[in-house]
Design brief:
Radius of gyration: 20 Å
Helix content: over 70%
Largest sheet: none
Distance between the termini: 18 Å
Order of helices and strands: HHHHHHHHHHHHH
Oligomer: single chain
Shape: globular
Structural class: mainly alpha
Length: 317
């Protein structure tokens, strides 16, 4: 089953890459997008303990109707669902990471999966207001991730005091980041806005792209820390929930009309680099507060840090 899923996904991605490169007939983008959306829906259903065949057939039906009728409202809705499923599946496909280098590997795998979703979103050719699209997909991905993790933790009692603090801090960081960006855009003083715009223009001119704040500050660090914590405590899944702030940004990253493909790739790369540095610092602080003292204690903690979880291709429930 895993082999068939991989072949379907790679076929869909290949069709979408051909469409992006203007190679082949115009219907390649639609077929590729529906194929990737169906394969991701099936894989997410499998990881969540659902029925993958049912969700794959449903995704194909929705995709065929969307592409066949060619209505903007249908394409926009399908694009939102595809971005949400891609972002959540990217997080659900990760496994616990005993060491930081393994956490880096899981972040890169999640970003790669979300990038396939980004191609599918573009392949659906939605006509959307970008800010509304980004807010909608972020809210949908976070709610779906929390719902799945609620089931994994058998309810809120799996949070514990530590998990409750983590969720509260993650929610606060998310709210503050979004509120600050929106307040600056709507009510910022002209001098402050001009200063920010000039800084962004300078970074783009010298580095080719600007890191995405929510992805670098919350999404990537949360995913790295969450995978690392999952090897030790079940609350790690609640941290991973905020990782969708990073993966949904990747899944919608190609929708920026004024950004080239190279700029979009560089923005994700810079965000990953900054996020992994921040994630490393958070992990070190966490270990300093909770792990045994001394080199021998750290080695023993690392050797015993392996909570049992199903493999990457097996149901979590």
């Amino acid at each position: 089953m895993a082999t068939g899923w991989a072949l379907a996904t790679l076929t869909g991605v290949a069709l979408l890459c051909c469409a992006v490169a203007d190679v082949g007939p115009t219907w390649l983008s639609g077929v590729g997008a529906v194929t990737v959306a169906a394969s991701y829906s099936a894989a997410l259903a499998l990881r969540a303990g659902g029925r993958p065949v049912v969700y794959a057939v449903l995704a194909v039906a929705v995709g065929v109707v969307t592409v066949g009728l060619d209505r903007d409202v249908l394409r926009n809705g399908a694009a939102v669902l595809t971005a949400v499923v891609s972002a959540v599946f990217a997080v659900a496909a990760t496994v616990p990471a005993v060491r930081y280098v393994e956490a880096v590997r899981e972040v890169l795998i999640a970003v790669l999966i979300a990038a396939g979703g980004a191609l599918a979103v573009v392949g659906l050719e939605p006509q959307v207001a970008l800010e509304r699209f980004e807010y909608t997909t972020l809210a949908g991905a976070l709610l779906l991730a929390l719902a799945i993790i609620y089931r994994l933790g058998a309810g809120l009692h799996g949070l514990g005091r530590r998990g409750l603090v983590i969720v509260a801090v993650g929610g606060l960081v998310l709210a503050v980041t979004l509120a600050y960006a929106e307040a600056l855009r709507r009510y910022g003083a002209p001098g402050v806005v001009d200063g920010v715009d000039s800084t962004v223009a300078w970074i783009r001119a010298h580095l080719g792209a600007v890191p995405r704040p929510l992805q670098a500050v919350l999404g990537i660090p949360a995913l790295a820390w969450g995978c690392h914590m999952r090897a030790r405590r079940r609350q790690g899944w609640w941290v991973c929930a905020f990782g969708v702030a990073g993966t949904v940004s990747v899944a919608t990253g190609l929708m920026h009309p004024r950004a080239s493909l190279l700029e979009s790739v560089l923005a994700v790369a810079y965000s990953i680099a900054l996020g992994l540095v921040l994630g490393y610092l958070v992990i070190r602080v966490d270990l300093a507060l909770t792990a045994p003292r001394g080199a021998r204690g750290r080695r023993a903690e690392e050797a015993n840090a392996l909570r049992p979880e199903p493999s990457r291709t097996a149901p979590l429930l």
